[in-house]
Specification:
The chain is mainly α and about 180 residues long. The chain contains nine helices and no strands. Helix 7 runs antiparallel to helix 8. It is elongated and about 75 Å long. The relative contact order is 0.07.
């Protein structure tokens, strides 16, 4: 019965039927003497489904459970989701703290580390810290070998440079207006 429910959970998740995947993940978790890996996968399924459904509080709860109980790649993904949910809620400082802490343990999960740095750049942009935003993107550009994430980091880096140029232009124009008005 466990195997059947586990397979149904996976099938519904693959078909992006989030509500049904949640239902079966919860059923999987009702079994006693559940193998740790199966429990971890059910918790991850719940976190991912709630993330996809934009149910931040539920996503946070399951992601934190994974983070506290696992050192696997699931933990790296859970840390990213925690940061993203907090960022979308406007809790930028808390999101930054969570992600900075998570980076310390992500080590071998390079894609999740790169994604986390890209998310950190968005957080720094929201906090108007362009220097930090560029710095974390530069790390991805210089050190990551995944072309899609490197390209995304380059696009965001260029966008920040455009914002800086626009701000400089605006400051120059404002200074010129002040000089002309005196």
């Amino acid at each position: 019965l466990l195997r059947c429910r586990d397979q149904l959970m996976r099938a519904h998740f693959r078909k992006e039927n989030w509500e049904r995947a949640i239902h079966y993940a919860k059923l999987v978790l009702t079994f006693e003497k559940l193998p740790a890996r199966t429990a971890e996968e059910a918790h991850m399924t719940l976190a991912r489904c709630y993330y996809k459904l934009d149910e931040g509080e539920n996503c946070l709860a399951y992601s934190r459970k994974i983070l506290s109980e696992s050192g696997s790649e699931y933990a790296a993904e859970a840390a990213y989701m925690i940061g993203d949910v907090l960022y979308r809620k406007g809790e930028h400082k808390q999101a930054e703290r969570e992600l900075r802490k998570a980076v310390q343990t992500m080590g071998s999960y390079r894609d999740w580390m790169a994604r986390t740095f890209i998310l950190l750049s968005d957080i720094y942009m929201a906090m108007d810290d362009l220097v930090q935003a560029k710095s974390v993107l530069k790390t991805v550009i210089d050190r990551h070998d995944g072309p899609d994430l490197v390209e995304l980091a380059k696009q965001k880096y260029q966008m920040i440079e455009e914002v800086e140029r626009e701000r400089s232009r605006k400051q120059f124009e404002d200074a010129m207006d002040l000089d002309l008005n005196e």
